[in-house]
Amino acid sequence: MPAEANRDKAAKTEADAPRTTPASPLTERQEARRRRILRASAQLAVRGGFDAVQMREVAESSQVALGTLYRYFPSKIHLLVAMMQDQLERLHGTLRRKPPTGETAAERTAETLMRAFRALQREPHLAEAMVRALTFADRSVSPEVDQVSRQTTAIILDAVGLTGPTPDQLAAVRVIEHTWHATLIAWLSGRASLDQVKTDIETVCRLMDLTAPKETDTP
Amino acid sequence: MPAEANRDKAAKTEADAPRTTPASPLTERQEARRRRILRASAQLAVRGGFDAVQMREVAESSQVALGTLYRYFPSKIHLLVAMMQDQLERLHGTLRRKPPTGETAAERTAETLMRAFRALQREPHLAEAMVRALTFADRSVSPEVDQVSRQTTAIILDAVGLTGPTPDQLAAVRVIEHTWHATLIAWLSGRASLDQVKTDIETVCRLMDLTAPKETDTP
DNA sequence: CGCCGACCTAGAACAAGTTTCAGAGTTGAT
DNA sequence: ATCAACTCTGAAACTTGTTCTAGGTCGGCG
pLDDT class for A8, splitting at 50, 70, 90? Predict the structure, then answer.
């Protein structure tokens, strides 16, 4: 069934390659290829982490030529960051279905992050691959990394229960995110224990007062 | 003057290669080589950042064979992390000579970090090289990365003016460090403005209350 | 019907980090 | 002075990410 042609035409008029951003609509077949690639990458990552995701192997596993792989994901980093976007979306969905139950904002945030952390713990190699990619990303991956960052912010804001955060609250959320990332990295490279992760996360959630604006008054 | 031999012997008895850790004392010549290598790396890094530090070029610039370079620094990451250790020591020295002047611990900490930040700003490529290496480091570099982390902690504790920090205070310092790192990364990859860096650093320093223990009482 | 253009494939080629190896060079001990 | 045990050198080889080239496939259109 030639459902592909007209869309290919559309893609052509706008850009040369399918982007990871929502910009260009992909053919069904192309969507399928993209999913195959991401799935193959995830499988490899689960087994051996960042180093095990080798572009030639990804191409072979997903039954795609190397050149095609690079057309879909312009670098290994792009590929792994896209994988992270995938996983984050899934996580956000799960969290929406089963929101955290803590009393205070700090408790809910810590609970959310620890839940995410336990999910990552289950596949540490996968986590390592994604996080390494994320932190190694240079300017050419900024848009994608930014998207990941926004998604993380959204997850935390959901946990807190804020819809219209003040700039101060946004800054606090950023600090929490930073701690989350850095702790994750320290844990993945064996420099922090599980306890330390837990402590740090709880510390930052407790101390970043998210319930009220800091500078302005709230009568 | 053959002051080299006995020390080489000493080195041999203990390990195969000179480590970056204080473990094995190096010959003068070896010290000189090591410094040449670090200097050459820094020069290359200043020019073009992480990518410009190419092992072949470093070897050539420092007049050392490639194999020798790898004997001193088992990987590019090790090399760049060692560069960071160097710079941090220098910074710590400077800070000791001219300590921050703020009234509160939070102010002094923020001042210290912003001063470090401005130093990095002067050589953004150098900063990029070091930070990329630091965050990309895997387990094999743990000891060195850990050393960097300890040095950073020491600098912050100096700024705060604490000598015997409580576990809670150490956790708070870790959160500050995490924020510092993550902000730096975001800035280097163009995802955060100078203002945002400043805001985040000040936010975390302000909110991480370092003046008194959190759990235990202070009569 | 047969050609066009976009996409895809296979595979070579290139770049940079890393490893390897044979042959010097050094140095302390005998 | 010679030896043994190192370290250093120079160059090639190997690995993996990335790019390039030449040709193949497919759907729509003249």
Answer: very low
How many Cβ atoms sit within 10 Å of the Cβ of residue B123?
A: 17
Which nucleotide has the least CA–C1' distance to A56?
D16
Burial of B7 from C-beta contacts in 10 A (0-12 / 13-18 / 19+): middle
Provide the shortest C-alpha distance from residue A129 to chain B (in Å).
Answer: 11
pLDDT in tens, B40-56: 999 999 999 999 999 99
Nucleotide nearest to B6 (CA to C1'): C28
The Cα–Cα gap between A120 and A126 comes to: 8
Per the CB < 8 A criterion, the answer to whether A165 and A173 are in contact is: yes
Tens-place pLDDT, residues A114-149:
999 998 999 999 999 999 999 899 899 999 999 999
How far apart are alpha carbons B163 and B108 in whole angstroms? 15
State whether the beta carbon of B35 lies below 7 angstroms from any atom of strand D: no
Q: What residue spans of chain B are helical by DSSP H?
A: 5-14, 28-52, 55-61, 66-72, 76-97, 105-122, 124-136, 142-160, 167-188, 194-207
Residue-level pLDDT at B171:
83
Give the CB-side neighbour count of residue B51, counting CA atoms within 13 A: 5
**In angstroms, rounded to a whole number, what is the distance separating the alpha carbons of residues B177 and B156?**
8
Homologous superfamily (CATH) for B17-207: Tetracycline Repressor, domain 2 (1.10.357.10)
- The string of DSSP letters for B118-147 reads HHHHHSHHHHHHHHHHHHH--GGGHHHHHH
Residue spans per domain, chain A: 13-207
% chain A with pLDDT above 90 = 53
Q: Count CB-CB contacts under 10 A for residue A160.
A: 24
Range A13-207 has CATH code 1.10.357.10? yes
Work out the number of other CB atoms within 10 angstroms of the CB of residue A57. Answer: 14
